[in-house]
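Sharing a chain and its predicted structure for anyone who wants a worked example. Both blocks are below, sequence first, tokens second.
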Amino acid sequence: MVNRKELDPDGGLAAAYGARLRRLREERGWKQEDLAARTSYSGKHVSAVETARRSPTLKLSREIDSAFGLTGTAQSFEREWQRMRDGVLLEGFPEYVHYERQAVEIRMFDIGIIPGLFQTAEYAEVLAAFNVERGSVTADQAAQRVDILRERQEILERRRPPMHFAVLDESCLRQMVGGPDVMAAQLDRLVELAARPFTFVQVAPFSMGERRPSHMPLTLLTLADRSMLAYTEAQARGRLVRERVTLTYLNATYHRLAAEALSPADSLAMIKALRESIL
């Protein structure tokens, strides 16, 4: 298509919405006019939403869901529109969540906070409550974030979940979130997850010192076709990385982290020791 505009799903929430709309439409082999015929909108309007020249509306989102068979599902465009309106998620994150659901392998490095997919409900609720207290989100937005996290965690309960490799900075384990009871339950959860055949947990100890190759959180996704994406966050915005050169660098960084971190067995021993020291 000569006039086809390349989309940037990292260009904001509306851009992520539009990129996802185009992707799902093309997966079905539909032209913009084909989708328009299934809604009360024109092909020109669909094009404007896909390229983020027009913002989506609740009415459009519901009609798109009806056309795609997504009404009432966790992947519905109505839910995405709601999150856009309420500012529940960071820019760039809705697109990441879409790919997270498709991933066959997830590799992550986190600092300070237990990664979302591993958080207990109580741990997540404490973090959400603090964000409400400091005024960064409303109580409703915080509740929606916790609900979204629960939906994301469903991938861990699949019959065949993605392979999950997690390197946790020691600060994730030592930072007391929610008090002894909450933190003890969170460490128990890590022990339980580490025992699963598809999950591998390592700790990057403080003793790594200058050997630590990264001081920023990082997530790498491998999809079924073996393509790779990375997700990073800065300030109040997330970013999906697709550039081959950057992915090669981030992939190498993750492998260096894993090589310098404690083995899974030694990591589990540290987690258990910290758990016993709490209560």
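Comments welcome. The chain has a mean pLDDT of 90.
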